[in-house]
Amino acid sequence: MAGSREGTGQTALVTGASMGIGVDLAECFARDGYDLVLTARSESALKEVAARLAQQHGVKATAIASDLGVPGAGEKLATAIKAAGIEIDALVNNAGYGIAGAFEGSDRTRQLGMIDLNDRALVELTHIYWPRMLANKRGGVLNVASTASFQPGPLMAIYYASKAFVLSFSEALWKEAEGTGVHVSCLCPGPTVSNFRATAGTGKTRLSRTGTPMPSAVVAEEGYRGWKANRRVVITGARNRVMARLVPFLPRKTILGLVHNLQSPL
Ligand SMILES: NC(=O)c1ccc[n+]([C@@H]2O[C@H](COP(=O)([O-])OP(=O)(O)OC[C@H]3O[C@@H](n4cnc5c(N)ncnc54)[C@H](OP(=O)(O)O)[C@@H]3O)[C@@H](O)[C@H]2O)c1
Predict the structure, then answer these.
(1) Across-strand partners of 93?
(2) Which terminal Cβ of the chain has fewer Cβ within 10 Å, N or C?
(3) C-alpha 201 – ligand 1 centre gap (Å)
């Protein structure tokens, strides 16, 4: 199985790889021969995923548990990866969570923790591995944002803002890397089957009744293919693409009212 696949001899670091979209993204890289470093907090789940992907795809897969919501965790993780003698060629910043509900009365520690994970850790890891990618003129970064990136999100304000950051940052890096051989893509899924909804509490909003969530494997496949083609932004699903492209043409007040309605409790 190993040998001639395009990722052979390279390693992808995938965050949030204990479940959901991250597992499927890791599988896409493994299928193409990339060795893997998988990280999340749940060590036993990570080890199971690593063992399965290594066995099924004939790659090396290393599980390193880490709470990336803790400031400095990216640096600590990178030190552990280096100590294991592993160099990272591709970085998949997928770990993230959301919090549904009004800003007023929300848990400040959780809200700030979400920014630490969704944005701070993503920037930290990218900053650590970016110079090697540019020097090698290969590899790159696949950041997982959301269709939430395209407009403000009343009743889920910090999550939407955190994902707008990811989109803005990713597009800027895509331009900085243009012509170098380093790929940068921002994957923007709409509702997707995973644990996300239970964690965020979005299962109790009107948005949860507006359509069928996409399977995580399909979302990951679209994201991975887009990254291989160095597509700047990958929005999964035709309906999500139409909605995201309409946003710039609608009055901001209309958008705010629409999202507020969708994020309202049932
Ligand atoms: N599902 C959707 O509808 C949807 C839509 C748009 C965007 N997204 C984005 O897709 C990404 C993946 O989410 P998902 O849908 O696959 O949700 P998920 O099933 O809840 O998976 C989230 C992953 O992030 C990890 N994680 C959470 N907190 C962490 C922390 N503090 N440190 C390290 N890892 C942590 C989780 O592992 P542990 O709990 O083991 O740490 C898990 O592996 C997220 O960035 C999310 O915002 C999801």
Answers:
(1) 143
(2) C
(3) 13
For residue 79, give the 3-state DSSP assignment. Answer: helix
Sign of CA dihedral 124, 126, 129, 134: negative
3-state secondary structure of 144: strand
Pocket test for ligand 1, best of 93, 111, 141, 192 (most atoms within 8 A of CB): 192
CB 189 within 8 A of CB 98: no
Give, using CA atoms, the residue closest to atom 34 of ligand 1. Answer: 40
Reported as a single tens digit per residue, the pLDDT across 130-186 is: 999 999 999 999 999 999 999 999 999 999 999 999 999 999 999 999 999 999 999
Mutating to test ligand 1, I would choose from 14, 15, 19, 169 the residue with most ligand atoms within 8 A of its C-beta, which is 19
**What is the C-alpha to C-alpha distance for residues 156 and 164, in angstroms, rounded to an integer?**
12
pLDDT category of residue 3 using cuts at 50, 70 and 90: low
Whole-angstrom CA distances from 105 to 100, 102, 108, 155 are 12, 7, 9, 11
Averaged pLDDT, 119-135:
98
pTM of the model: 0.98
Q: Cβ < 6 Å from ligand 1: which residues?
A: 16-22, 40-42, 66-69, 94-98, 117, 144, 146, 189, 191-192, 194-196, 199
